[in-house]
Amino acid sequence: MDTGNKQEGISRRDFLKITASVGVGLAIGASGMAAIEKVVSPTSKAVAGNDPTEDRIPMYGEHQSGIITPQQTYMYLASFRITTADRATLIRVLRDWTKFSDLSMAGRTMQTGDNPLLPPSDTGETLDLPASKLTVTFGFGPTFFSADGKDRFGIAGKLPRYLKDIPRMPSDKLDASQSGGDVCIQVCAEDQQVAFHALRNFIRLSMGAATLNWMQEGFISGGSGGQTPRNLFGFKDGTANQLHQSEGGYQDVVWAGEGEPDWMRGGTYMAYRKVRMFLEVWDRSSLADQEDTFGRYKESGAAYGTKGEFDKPDPSKMPIASHVRLAKESKQLIHRRGYSYTDGVDPRTGNVNAGLLFISYQRNPDEQLLPMLKLMQSKDALNEYVSHIASGLFACPGGLREGQYIGQSILES
Ligand SMILES: C=CC1=C(C)c2cc3[nH]c(cc4nc(cc5[nH]c(cc1n2)c(C)c5CCC(=O)O)C(CCC(=O)O)=C4C)c(C)c3C=C
Ligand SMILES: [Fe+2]
To answer: CB 3.0-4.6 Å disulfide test: which of 9, 148, 184, 270 passes with 115?
Structure first.
């Protein structure tokens, strides 16, 4: 990506002309775009004892990063609405997002500025920071392909097989302003500032072509030992992922299969549910009630009737309405990659607004996720303590080769 291209800076007079004719947003966006070719190389970014190329996750390959990548500690999830109807403008943004992903995952930044009359190309807050295992995962929602009956970009025919909004579930209390979207970007890193920097610059680069619908920030309990993170109810969350963590397992559970458009090869579906967790209610319930809710022991994470976290669960030993027993009854596997969130105080109750940004990846949401979700929403003991408040389903294309841009296989095949 570091092409070494010399781009001419634009003068303040040119800048004013552009803002007058196309609006400030687009002008700032355009200046960012020109400058994205100019990057600060890892060596010039390095500070004493800090190698910015360390902790890199490769950007190119069969699959996008951030799906089966071991979970980093911080995440931002953001949804965009494409506002441009112009295909070339859309392609320009997708190209810029891709270039920016490439350089920031490599621990580099855009040049902060060589024209004092313009805003710096890069916001600058990662100048001294390494790549921090940054990953960027793009997903496309149903409205990317067609919205309000309009085929804006001539891609309605490219809709993948299972992409649609998650149907309304019995106890949903969904907020439309926090749900869905044309494009979803999941950004994860070991340093929260690195993750935020990426998202912030994706927003900047999309000016004049897309707007931010919503964004969420999440965290998990870190730990160098690779332990399963604990959620805000204090339980290990993610244990059962172990059942499919092999090449064959990912093939069966995560990667899109037959009957999909070519661009979904190596891709998957990302399901998102924002689930509020009523911490105050939970904290007043007994340990026995808490453990009965999941059918697992709190401290060890072991399933009822077993000793170790990864011992094979016997659902018949768990309460009938327990969360894990119901998940097992669905006989399906999904790859969960959720994050906890906190959102300040609920002004109506004075309680903490917090919960789980449930994210799962699966090859067929109709078969794997929806029956499980229905079953849980109608019977799960967990429902006493949680409420689903936002939702989304996005199709994530397969990985990229160098030189390709995200979404190219949809727009140009
Ligand atoms: C429909 C999918 C699921 C939603 C929504 C969901 C919400 C949710 N889960 C927890 C906590 C735990 N979940 C656990 C296991 C588990 N959960 C799902 C699915 C959904 N969870 C599955 C498929 C499984 C695996 C079941 C299995 O095969 O064993 C566990 C146990 C440990 C583990 O395996 O991860 C916990 C704890 C919360 C708090 C929550 C919503 C807020
Ligand atoms: Fe769960």
So the answer is: 9
Q: What is the pLDDT of residue 12?
A: 32
Of residues 275, 271, 238, 284, the one with CA closest to residue 353? 275
- pTM score, two decimals? 0.91
What is the ipTM score, two decimals? Answer: 0.99
Overall number of domains in the chain: 1
> Does residue 142 sit within a domain?
yes
- What band does 58 get if pLDDT is binned at 50, 70 and 90? very high
User: Is 60 contained in some domain?
Assistant: no
| Nearest protein Cα to ligand 1, atom 25 | 240
Is 341 among the domain residues?
Answer: yes
Determine the distance separating the centroid of ligand 2 and the alpha carbon of 403, expressed in angstroms: 39
Can you tell me whether residue 27 is helix, strand or coil? Answer: helix
Q: How far is the CA of 133 from the centre of ligand 1 (A)?
A: 26
Indicate the pairing of strand 183-189 with strand 74-82: antiparallel
Q: What digits encode the pLDDT tens for the residues 241-289? A: 999 999 999 999 999 988 999 999 999 999 999 999 999 999 999 999 9
Ligand 1 — pocket residues by CB below 6 A?
A: 231, 233, 235-240, 273, 275, 277, 294, 296, 313, 323-324, 327-328, 334, 355-356, 358, 369, 372-373, 376, 386
